[in-house]
Amino acid sequence: MEITVDQMYQIENKGHDMGFLKKFMMENAGAVAVRRLVEKFGSVDSKNVVIFIGMGNNGGDGQVMARHLAGHNANVTVVLLGTPDKIKTEESSWNWSLLEKMPSVKLVTGNSTDFDFKPDIIIDGILGTGINGDIREPYASAINFINQTNCYKFAVDVPSGMDPQTGETASLFTKCDMTVTFHKMKQGIPKRKDLTGELFAEKIGIPPEAEIDVL
Ligand SMILES: NC(=O)C1=CN([C@@H]2O[C@H](COP(=O)(O)OP(=O)(O)OC[C@H]3O[C@@H](n4cnc5c(N)ncnc54)[C@H](O)[C@@H]3O)[C@@H](O)[C@H]2O)[C@@H](O)CC1
Ligand SMILES: [K+]
């Protein structure tokens, strides 16, 4: 069953209010995304992975992936597209404070629009269901860098720049090899297999009771 983005936010909020906190959803999202990626490659040991993250919870999922990938011995660089004090949510900030205690993960922050990496894998955790309007800097430059770089590309929840409700794109958007979306498929995403690549919808532990009166 495909659901709307609005239904997804309602289910997420109801699950949180039941006590299954958003930080647990985020943890499961990042963990299952890494499981799919590791399955794809067999091993990510010594792979150079660059994770671009935005200031919302899509970026939070990307941060969880960074921690798990470090556990799989990947060489992980996280590029926060802004400054840590501007991270929007408690659960994403909480994950950032964890990464700051992990020398195994390289952190890059700020509003730079000049990127110079040679990754084996890029993870796009820039924008998810919270996309609104045309893409602003520094997100725009990050999306351009991703599209210009020849490597494997993995989208967290949805390729950034695509509206997961309609499948329509902003003027800039990423084109990925694999997309893992969470809880249930959002209506617009499967319309754009040209941008998602292999597409999976994965459960993240939200109690089915959180769907009552929503679906
Ligand atoms: N729905 C769920 O149950 C879950 C959602 N999670 C993740 O949370 C994501 C949604 O998080 P958010 O609601 O924080 O939204 P996003 O992380 O998609 O980003 C929203 C932020 O990006 C910025 N932004 C929006 N449009 C922009 C544009 N055009 N140019 C530049 N900046 C722009 C805004 O400042 C906004 O705060 C999902 O996509 C998913 O990855 C997960 O943590 C797991 C649970
Ligand atoms: K994304």
Automatic annotation (TrEMBL):
TM segment ranges: none
Record keywords, A-Z: Isomerase, Metal-binding, NAD, NADP, Nucleotide-binding, Potassium
Binding site for K(+): N58, D124, S160
PROSITE patterns assigned: YJEF_N (PS51385)
Entry's Gene Ontology molecular function annotations: metal ion binding; NAD(P)HX epimerase activity; nucleotide binding
Domain (YjeF N-terminal) ranges: 8-212
Reactions performed catalytically: (6R)-NADPHX = (6S)-NADPHX; (6R)-NADHX = (6S)-NADHX
InterPro entries referenced in this protein's UniProt entry, alphabetically: YjeF_N_dom (IPR004443), YjeF_N_dom_sf (IPR036652), YJEFN_prot_NAXE-like (IPR032976)
Co-factor(s): K(+)
Cofactor comment text: Binds 1 potassium ion per subunit.
Keyword Transmembrane helix (UniProt): no
EC numbers: 5.1.99.6
Origin: domain of life: Archaea
Database matches in Gene3D superfamilies: YjeF N-terminal domain
Residues annotated to bind (6S)-NADPHX: N57, N58, G59, G60, D61, G128, T129, G130, I131, N132, G133, D134, Y139, D157
Functional summary from the UniProt entry: Catalyzes the epimerization of the S- and R-forms of NAD(P)HX, a damaged form of NAD(P)H that is a result of enzymatic or heat-dependent hydration. This is a prerequisite for the S-specific NAD(P)H-hydrate dehydratase to allow the repair of both epimers of NAD(P)HX.
Family according to the record: Belongs to the NnrE/AIBP family.
The protein's name in its UniProt record: NAD(P)H-hydrate epimerase
